[in-house]
Amino acid sequence: MGLVPLVSDSVDSFEMHQMCDCEEFCPKCSVEYRLTKRCPANVDMCEVTSNDIEVVGHGNSRGVMPVRYVDDKGNDEDPILIMKLSKN
Predict the structure, then answer these.
(1) What are the residues whose beta carbons fall under 8 Å from the beta carbon of 11, sequence distance 6 or more?
(2) What structural domains and CATH numbers belong to the chain?
């Protein structure tokens, strides 16, 4: 997941982690993500993509999300493939 590009209009509002006075991570210096997906029983294989990444907690209000690419006509392009899951 570390290679999925992120975008934010509020990047300047974050503290550098090294400069933050928190002990580990806090909403001032970090964003937490969750990726939960299961392959449905009725399909042999499903894709896990950047569209499956969810922002957890305060990061959601700060607009830090995986990049969504659009073509010249404004149509969504395919999301970034992270992995493929198989049944079971």
Answers:
(1) 64
(2) 6-86 (2.170.120.12)
